Amino acid sequence: MAMTNNRKRCFTCSRENNTYTCEGCSKRFCSIHIPEHQQILNEELHHIINGYNQFKQRIDEQKQYSYNYSLIEQIDQWERNSIEIIQEKAQELNGNKNSITAADGNLAGQELNQFDCPTGIFIDKNKNIFIVDCANHRVVEWKYNAKEGQIIAGGNGKANRMNQLNYPQEVIVDDFGRIYVADNGNSRIMRWCEGKEEGEIVVGGNNEGYRSNQLYSPHDLSFDDEGNLYVVDSLRARILKFEIM
């Protein structure tokens, strides 16, 4: 703080003694009060410097935190990628070692050892496999270790007669050996009893609609422990429960 000497009134005491002009604030102070003014200015400057240092420290800490956070995120991503690669390799090894073709494996077709767009599967307690052969409009049963299947539902072209299916989607077998099929294209659930050439409608078959006895493109079905049938009515965006046992 540069000072100049002049005989004018002091800003603090208003006395007309020798005064000095503070070039920082352009005010005049006598010889008694100029040291006090200098002390005040020094304290203010010190406060500003401390504030600057604290602010700079916070900025540096934020930069370090941002860097550390970014580094931790990068390490976590590397770890996740490594785990995924290891799991993929493990699945490949297990698949090459243990997997076998349980049914078909031939080109798409209509023979009893072929499928065309299978969409559903059910395995009973005897390891027999029931397969929904969607594009062939039939359900085929493959006995355990058999070389070909046998048609147990549909297989008579795409239509809505009792011995036909229309792009079936799912199959399930109850404890009595009765076969339930989600007959998607006909918007109905069909049931076939063992040895029967024709099935029966247990749900739907009343055109597409919103009533409780109507379906629209059923895709899946399941039984609960009490024998109630649940149907995924896909194009009506709902799950329906039926007591049919």
TrEMBL record:
A single MF term (Gene Ontology): zinc ion binding
Q: Entry's PANTHER family? A: E3 UBIQUITIN-PROTEIN LIGASE NHLRC1-RELATED, PROTEIN LIN-41
Q: Would the keyword Repeat be found if you checked this record's keyword annotation?
A: yes
Write the record's keywords in alphabetical order, separated by commas: Repeat
Among its keywords, does the record have Repeat?
yes
Taxonomically, the superkingdom here is Eukaryota
Q: What name does this protein carry?
A: Uncharacterized protein
Q: Name one Pfam family in it.
A: NHL
